[in-house]
Design brief:
The structure is a homotetramer. By secondary structure, the first copy, chain A, is an alpha+beta fold. Chain A has one domain: Hotdog Thioesterase (Thiol Ester Dehydrase, Chain A). Helix content of chain A is 27%, strand content 38%. Chain A contains three helices and six strands. A six-stranded antiparallel sheet of chain A has the order 1-2-4-5-6-3. In chain A, a hairpin with a 5-residue loop joins strand 5 and strand 6. At the A-B interface, helix 1, helix 2, helix 3 and strand 3 of A face helix 1, helix 2, helix 3 and strand 3 of B.
Chain lengths: 146, 146, 146, 146
């Protein structure tokens, strides 16, 4: 049962990642996909710096939002973000290796709450993100054998 | 007085934009910069689509966050985002022309609240964003004549 | 048409207020009810002060949430809060007369976004609130003639 | 060291509670106070019900905000809420016994992030709250021997 859920989470993650041009263009890797949980990592590139010479907050959000997306789609129900909030705790700089870990807090009928923590390579917290998911009627993998 | 504030907002915006590699890499234009207010636009490119074939929510956030950044830095005090929240109302698709308009709601000593609305080319609301700013001690343009 | 919508908003507001024990216990008045818009006011009483001798932030939230509730129920569809966020800008003190004005930003099928601003008797902003509504299947007034 | 921090947290909590008229008027108990952590409980009374005959969301927020306040003041630095967000997951009904547990996620110079989960007597999640704290210059207990 658990093994099946885990296999499904991995299959969904791989299929999503292949289609996920935005995430690949940003060099984001999805390093873990489990039922209700996912991790993603990103290195801060020169083309991610804003006018203050730190990583654009939008791209830190994008990393967190990606971990959130892979966590909430892990059951093979197409799921999108309805809302999200982020607290920025510390700037990220050129070359920093950021990791976002998304954890499911609650999941009910059609919606869920996921917490994402973003840390840098020193283990320092860079941002805390909370997302509210909304499940659509379709599946991510249409041809999955149940 | 107002003309001076407007000239300062424009000078800050230009200087920030020149350094703002992330925003230029995403093809974002800053189309208006006024004291406490800014607009930015972005066309949804193929490399912005996620695994559901719609614009990655993180990049819609990035557009809104950019308008917010230019609005809250317009007084030539270096200002960063402390926190932000976003509600996603409607997906954005390949080729959509998105515009984010940031408006100051309050600004006090070292912090402020800015609302950003993102619309598509049909005038439909795509996202609502609210950001909390935090002012640093430095200036954006160090050499401005007061 | 507009007159009908306004009459419905007022009828819903009155019916809700009669049943709304919590709001009456806090001395909150609903001073305006229009389609998608409502205002509520509250005087800060001695039994609303927290350990810092200022109005408990939860009660400022409650005032804002009340204006939100009357605004989003104004169409006679039972509607509850799915989520809300608040920024506290200035403390409220004993005797302060607070007013919360809720405005609809967007409303679609089953959800909406409402902004609420809370001001004191000097017109100073005390808090900004944003709520996400969720429409239930029932009506507030079951016996309304359409 | 830890024992001292724990004793301080308890002394602060007791002193705050004695002055905290709002919390006592709502029948809220502070059932645990530790450095960076606090729990509070509240029974839903008849005078807490709104027009839908469920507990007013503002009072669920108030309970969560109270746990947050006792957690972030536990170091004897006067600390207030700068902002908070809440997701409502399930209604609370007359007689429900609600418990809010606040946990510190990060704390730096003058601000911190605290997560609060509110559950009912069946262990079901009623709301998730996240608060951003702002430290003032004063102490809660002015006469503490360091």
């Amino acid at each position: 049962m658990e093994a099946q859920a885990q296999a499904l989470a991995e299959a969904v993650s791989q299929a999503m990642y292949e289609r996920d041009v935005a995430v690949r263009a940003l060099g984001i890797s999805v390093v873990e996909a489990r039922p209700g949980r996912a991790s993603a990592s990103m290195r801060v590139r020169a083309d991610m710096l804003n006018g203050h010479a730190i990583c654009h907050g939008g791209l830190i959000f994008t990393l967190a939002d990606t971990a959130f997306a892979y966590a909430c789609n892990s059951y093979n129900k197409s799921t999108v973000a309805a809302a999200a909030s982020i607290d920025f705790l510390r700037p990220a700089r050129l070359g920093d290796a950021l990791t976002a870990v998304a954890t499911e807090r609650v999941r009910s009928k059609r919606s869920g709450i996921y917490d994402v923590a973003v840390h840098n390579q020193h283990g320092e917290a860079v941002a805390l993100f909370r997302g509210r998911s909304h499940e659509l009627a379709s599946a991510v993998l249409e041809t999955v054998t149940p």
